[in-house]
Amino acid sequence: MDPFKQMGDWKKNMDHFMGDNFWNEFEGIIKPTIPQLNIYQSDHELFCIVNVPGLDDINKLDIYVDYATLELKGVIDISHIGGTVIKEEILQGAFERSITLPFPVRADKIKATYRNGLVFIQLHRLISETSKRNKVNVRMLEDD
């Protein structure tokens, strides 16, 4: 018998018993969130580091900032063909993440760069109350 079918049946039964939203609480445990992200805060600045390996076209990565929300959309694609997978820890696939920032940020002072599989996003605290969703341009940095 197919073990994945058994798992699907088990999940359906749990959904029926616990409710459709039961699994939402476990999503980060069962399937870790991608891309991985670190955010560092200083007095008036946020510095975000996002793990996006294998990105060869920065136009395939969308970063939006809207007031106090950072949105990330793209695809992590490790292009390896052939052989049998023995161990696979690098998460791949399409992602869409929305992160609530600890404070509103300025739309006119955003900097994003990509190097060695990491996106570096620098954001500055917003003092006024106007809000507007802004697309962030990412520059490719060449290896030294």
From TrEMBL:
Taken from the record, one Pfam family name reads HSP20
Residues making up the signal peptide according to the UniProt record: none
Entry superkingdom? Bacteria
Residue ranges of every copy of the SHSP domain listed in the record: 28-141
Among Gene3D superfamilies, the record links this protein to: 2.60.40.790
InterPro entries in the record:
A-crystallin/Hsp20_dom, HSP20-like_chaperone
Q: What SUPFAM superfamilies has UniProt attached to this entry? A: HSP20-like chaperones (SSF49764)
| Family, per entry | Belongs to the small heat shock protein (HSP20) family.
Q: What is this protein called?
A: Hsp20/alpha crystallin family protein
User: Whose protein is this, by species?
Assistant: Virgibacillus byunsanensis
